[in-house]
Amino acid sequence: MRPDDPFDDAVTARAVIAADGTLARWSEGARLLLGYPAEEVVGRPAADLLADSAVPPRLPATRWSGTLVLRRRDGETVTVWMLAHHRQPSGNGPGEWLAVTPMETSDQELPDDPLVRAAVFQSPCAAMVFDEALRLHGVNDAMAYLLGLPAAHLRGLRPTDVGSRPQHAELERHLRQVLRTGRPYEMQTYMKATGESRAHAWLARLAPLTDRTRRVRGVCVTVHDFTEQYRARERLQLVNEASMRIGTTLDVTRTAQELAEVCVPALADFVSVDLLEPDEPGGEPVHPLTAPVSLRRVAHQSRTPGNPEASAALGEVVVYPAAAPHADSLIAGHSIMASVSSGELDPWLAVDDARTRQILEHGVHAILSVPLQARGTTLGVAAFSRFSHPEAFTHDDVLLAEEVTARAAVCIDNARRYSRERETTLALQRSLLPRTLPRTAAVEAATRYLPAARSGVGGDWFDVIPLSGMRVAMVVGDVVGHGIQASATMGRLRTAVRTLADIDLAPDELLTHLDDLVHHLSQESGGDPGHGEVGATCLYAVYDPVSRRCTLARAGHPAPVMIPPGGAARHLDLPSGPPLGMGGLPFESAELELPDEAVLAFYTDGLVESRGRDSEVGHALLREALSHAAGPLDETCDRVLQTVLSPGGATDDVALLLARTHGLPAAQVATWDIPADPALVAPIRKQVVDQLGTWALTEASFTAELVVSELVTNAIRYGAPPIRLRLIHDASTLICEVSDTSHTAPHLRRAKTWDEGGRGLLLVAQLTQRWGSRHTAEGKTIWSELALVDEM
């Protein structure tokens, strides 16, 4: 052994015992005590040193102290007091034991030492004194109690001889620092005193002791118990952490899980949160409560990975009988503590064998049940269990648990109310959106609507509206704001768009009327109309499959994307137009010709805009996702949402409408220019009948002939030339249109008994599926639709 090895000195006998019971090291002090040199005992069983009558001690898990009778090398026996403690292994081995005994007699008068007299008797708190070699010179009774060892036997021991806790090694390191620098040092530690069931917080002050020449001769260690302050600080820290970590979202399940995570392991080893369920979706929890109580497990957390202590899976209904603390605290409305040792859980465990096995298996010894209450409503119960914590719950623990659960209950109630309002708003929103899209010959359409993940349901909408002449209108809009008010406004605007579309207004004119409506809605809401208290954006497009032309206008809405067959996606260059509600500003339309099978993508800004990402990036992702739109539109919609939306979900509502255009073949359209001569109506009827024969629609000839005759005669009599007749048909509909340059539109009236006229339009209305008129740039068009097949 090296002479400077701190293990080897003549003041204390030390020996290291390996896990197999053999001696691994032997100090000089041990040789002086028993007479054996190291080479004779190292490798031998330590029990060989015991006297024949001595019984080997039962070593606990950490430390043992007591009196042993040992046999010296000369055959004599010696009785010594010995302290042994288990040391953590340096590698993957089982560890070893360090056994020490002071060589000095225990009856020395410690007050004769001036260092001990100055430190021990003048200190009002626990104190001990170490010399320059870091050997313990003496302790007072308070320190001996803290160390859990008799004061008379501690003289000559080093800090690491007393125990193997990290605090002992840290103390020895700082003692050397004080001896070297001569400056005091303060350190904090958290440990248990012998006989105490709870750990204590200690503040240790290490002060150098000097002689008359100012030479440092030792170190005095005084210890102050500041457990209450430490625990108060811990409680305050937990409450502060709860205020920051609980309620980060408006999700009931996530909020309950945050409560469980905050309290483990700071307050309990296992926490479960069970919530009462309302009688009906969106209602209040059932009151008053009676046992047994049924709750749904929404969250739990354990310090053991995998939550093996959980008695129920997440989402499972748990039934608590009257004897369970969970039910009792819910019914009583206050916290209940119960422990296994006191027998308070016996009535519950007597009727629940599975719970009894679980408590015994995991060593649960204390349960604290706290009802979750907010705004006069009991929402559920949080249960705190301890099995690794050796201490039972105290009154301070109850106050802390109630403080944390009270904060969590408010957050859970907020989330519950928000969820209920969100579900109501979402139900309203979905009821106002089209459930199915109409099937038209002009376009094939697919849509998606996603409410915002966090900000709530807004006012995004879409629609596909069949128009006369086999044309179709497509609209996408976005109302400013979120919630029920935005959804209600959206419903009013969608209804207005349908009404305006029914009278066949041009897109720019329709947006002008819609702008007036939003302007008036803003006035009704009490806001400043100029600043858009009620505001919206909108894009309106009309596609004509006969001419294959599409007319579009937008009011502050993102421009659509067009994907030609086999081509790259590109944004259409349209006049932007002001948002709806500004009042008095004009809108412009743009017209373009679309190839067959082209795809138009209409969307709201929630698709391409998100926090932390530039909108141009979103537009680029959208074009990339639409570049392969040749397949089914539903698949394209899903691909767009997966590609463009961020992983956290949409931060705003998203409405997406994809429409693939289908042009009508020229063979399904017939057009005639009509002279303004009533005598030529009969030849026109014959041409119509011949054309229907060519189309194999002879079964509709009689009705079509009557309708054409009436509409052409009215145009010759009341309209202005030039007059044009057009027939359009697809698989299910025959459309008859008569156009002239007069802007006077006919109206339906009921003729009196002796009137000679006034029955023509009434006859048309009776014979056709629907009819109407629309204004054009050149005049007007009267149209009617005949069903070719019976609708089931």
UniProtKB/TrEMBL annotation:
Record InterPro entries: Bact_Sigma-Reg, GAF, GAF-like_dom_sf, HATPase_C_sf, HATPase_dom, PAS, PAS-assoc_C, PAS-like_dom_sf
Keyword Cell membrane: no
UniProt domain PAC: residue ranges: 183-238
Domain PAS: 16-44
Alphabetical UniProt keywords: Hydrolase
Family matches, as SMART domains: GAF, PAS, PP2C_SIG
Domain of life (superkingdom): Bacteria
TM stretches of this protein: none
Name of the featured protein: SpoIIE family protein phosphatase
Organism whose genome encodes this protein: Streptomyces marokkonensis
